[in-house]
Design goal:
The complex is a heterodimer of chains A (148) and B (81). Chain A has four helices and nine strands, in the order βαβββαβββαββα. Chain A is α+β, with helices and mostly antiparallel strands. In chain A, strands 3, 4, 6, 8 and 9 form a five-stranded antiparallel beta sheet that branches. In chain A, strands 1-5-7-2 form a four-stranded mixed beta sheet, with helices on both faces. Chain B is α+β, with helices and mostly antiparallel strands and 81 residues long. Chain B is globular. Classes of the chains: A alpha+beta (148), B alpha+beta (81).
């Protein structure tokens, strides 16, 4: 059972857990990404998530399908929310279940890393001072590489 | 020459002032030709030399041909999660 979705309503994490758990699964993992109050030293009030929804849906499904091919027997539900989110709200939830903990944990890590690398979703951070900016992870990576 | 519509998102949509633009490219055109044409438009300097491009909702390298009717999108650095 592999199910993914881009949603514009609050994510019900317990529903994801219920969906992946079965009598054959002995290990269930849940990853939640939530809106944090500080980024790069700036006080954050919220994040506006947007997406190329049609492609993000396809790419997220491809990520989950690849995880299922690598980690045979996993059951997965992934939901990523778009829209305006406040502090502590869940932006992404990944529930994975398997007979054993190893594949469940490994698949979960694989999915979140690939999601962040490939799925066309963007976030505009809003700050306490009223300013905002698009978050660009590649802008952060470049100076780190330059110092090595 | 042929006209191709290109979808824009997030910071790129802001820079071009639109969620989609039309570019004129020689036929046969490639993904790289579309990027070159975009860079000449107002706001086009925001694009890196090799931005991510999706054709029909899949990431596509610069050398791949594109034709009118395909869904072409330029993808800013992604930041999901």
């Amino acid at each position: 059972m592999i199910r993914t979705a881009i949603v514009d309503v609050p994510i019900d994490a317990s529903a994801l857990l219920t969906a992946v758990t079965s009598p054959a699964t002995g290990a269930t993992t849940l990853f939640l990404g939530t809106v944090r109050d500080v980024n790069e030293g700036r006080a954050v009030t919220g994040i506006e998530y947007s997406a190329y929804t049609a492609m993000a849906s396809d790419e997220l499904q491809r990520v989950a399908d690849e995880a299922a091919a690598r980690f045979e027997g996993i059951r997965v539900v992934v939901e990523h929310r778009i829209g305006t989110l406040h502090l502590e709200e869940v932006s992404v939830a990944i529930a994975v279940a398997h007979a054993r903990r190893g594949p469940a944990l490994d698949a979960q890590r694989f999915i979140i890393e690939e999601l962040k690398r490939r799925v066309p979703i963007w976030k505009r951070e809003h700050y306490v001072d009223g300013d905002w900016q698009w978050v660009d992870p590649t802008a952060h990576a470049a100076p780190l590489e330059a110092t090595t | 020459m042929t006209q191709l519509q290109v979808l824009l998102f997030a910071s790129y949509a802001d820079a071009f002032g639109a969620g989609a633009v039309t570019v004129s490219v020689p036929e046969p055109a490639t993904v790289a030709d579309v990027v070159s044409a975009l860079r000449k438009l107002p706001g086009g300097s925001v694009l890196p030399a090799l931005p991510l491009v999706a054709v029909d909702r899949r990431y596509t390298p610069g050398a791949v041909p594109v034709v009118a009717g395909q869904e072409i999108a330029v993808i800013p650095p992604v930041a999901g999660g």
